[in-house]
Design a protein that fits this description.
Largest sheet: 25 strands, parallel
Structural class: mainly beta
Number of strands: 38
Helix content: 10-25%
Distance between the termini: 68 Å
Shape: elongated
Radius of gyration: 27 Å
Length: 411
């Protein structure tokens, strides 16, 4: 029996081995991260001491943890990509990466993950970058609590903060992304959760995704981005409790929906945007428990949008609540609170006794002739809006909230 136990101990020791700790510092025998990776065995931990390391094209091709101590600076000297992960089970934690190379033919990133699974990128600071964190054909990973600060000036010469391409089952949480082209970008990436991120002051979009299904976007803030947030050609999307704020400009909106089907947009705040939600060709979307506060347009409905439900939302002090470019309505508006509602509630049940018509004739006119916006709040406009309300000609006659609330929704 003793011989068998000894044999088993030798077998497991030699076949599995023990994970080691490898230290990298400027005065250590191992002074480069590349050197440490070359000497490391699977599942080792490389600890990088505080200092300044001028390295790029660092290839992580085995399961490793690379852990920074007091945020060591990895300086790519503008020569190319800094870290590329090509193995499963890799963790990058606590590094400060700067000076990613820029190219018009290659998307150099501070950290790229290629065809990998079960990776973690966390507590990383990225500055002076082209692309920040780029996931390519990877899955079951986590991008957590990173700070990505770019210095983008022109779209053509800047990259995205966090980009996913053909990557599934990814968690992107508690990241701060600022001053890049698109803060967070997804393409062909399904079953991802984007949660508790702050994406602001980016050249184009705070969030931008296309052809990405079954994703959840929750508790994020998208503020003061060039064009807001764009969601395109996707289905089964859930957007809960996000803030879309201060996205101003002639082509800006809080949220653009283009050909989105079977989605839920619930509990969000759209505040002080040119357009709160601009929706086109999107069907079977539930808009519920959202606040639309002080926008130019709360919602613009364009193109074929069918079987959508606008339920229990608050429309507060928007210049226009709803803009509609069709005379056909297949959407439901019910139990919303409209600050512009002037009806009465004789039985005091909290529901107005007179239906509310949210589409004004003037919004129809402004859509066709934007210059007429200068007439907003004039007596003439009040008169034509009243006439359209009494006898609809240009707006759908069945676009009504039959149960408008007289008190603001609270949830």
């Amino acid at each position: 029996m003793k011989h068998i136990l000894a044999f088993l101990l030798i077998f497991f020791t030699t076949s599995i081995g023990f994970a080691q700790l490898i230290e990298v510092c400027e005065t250590c025998p191992i002074s480069k991260i590349k050197q440490a990776i070359a000497q490391a065995s699977n599942n080792d931990t490389i600890v990088v001491a505080k200092g300044n390391y001028k390295e790029y094209d660092i290839i992580v091709d085995k399961p490793l943890t690379i852990l920074g101590k007091d945020y060591p600076v990895i300086d790519g000297e503008l020569k190319g990509e800094i870290i590329t992960i090509k193995s499963d089970n890799v963790t990058i934690d606590g590094l400060f990466l700067i000076n990613v190379g820029m190219s018009y033919t290659e998307d150099f990133a501070a950290i790229r993950v290629k065809k990998s699974k079960n990776f973690v990128i966390q507590n990383v600071v990225l500055e002076k970058l082209f692309f920040g964190i780029y996931l390519e054909k990877s899955s079951y990973g986590k991008v957590f609590h990173n700070k990505i600060i770019g210095d983008a000036v022109q779209e053509y010469s800047s990259g995205n903060g966090i980009q996913l391409w053909h990557s599934n089952h990814i968690g992107i949480e508690q990241n701060h992304v600022q001053n890049v082209r698109d803060g967070i970008y997804l393409e062909f990436s399904d079953d991802c959760i984007i949660k508790n991120n702050f994406s602001a002051e980016n050249l184009r979009y705070g969030l931008h995704f296309m052809f990405s299904n079954d994703d959840i976007y929750q508790d994020n803030t998208f503020e003061n981005n060039g064009a807001g947030v764009a969601v395109m050609f996707s289905k089964n999307i859930k957007m809960y409790n996000n803030i879309f704020k201060e996205n101003w400009g002639t082509a800006s909106y809080g949220l653009l929906l283009k050909e989105i089907n079977d989605a839920e947009i619930i509990g969000n705040t759209f505040e002080e945007n040119t357009i709160g939600i601009n929706t086109e060709g999107s069907n079977r979307v539930v808009y519920k428990n959202n606040d639309f506060i002080g926008n130019g347009w709360a919602i613009k409905v364009r193109g074929a949008c069918y079987a959508n439900q606008f339920i229990e939302n608050n429309f507060l002090y928007n210049s226009f609540d709803i803009a509609y470019n069709s005379k056909v309505n297949d959407n439901v508006f019910n139990n919303n609170y409209w600050s512009n509602y002037t009806g009465y509630d004789l039985d005091k049940d909290g529901i107005g006794d007179v239906p509310y018509r949210p589409v004004k004739l003037f919004s129809y006119i402004v859509n066709r002739t934007p210059e007429t916006i200068i007439l907003l709040r004039s007596l003439f406009i009040d008169i034509i809006d009243f006439s359209e309300k009494v006898s609809p000609v240009f707006t759908p006659d069945n676009l009504l909230d039959n149960n408008p609330l007289t008190r603001r929704n609270t949830w």
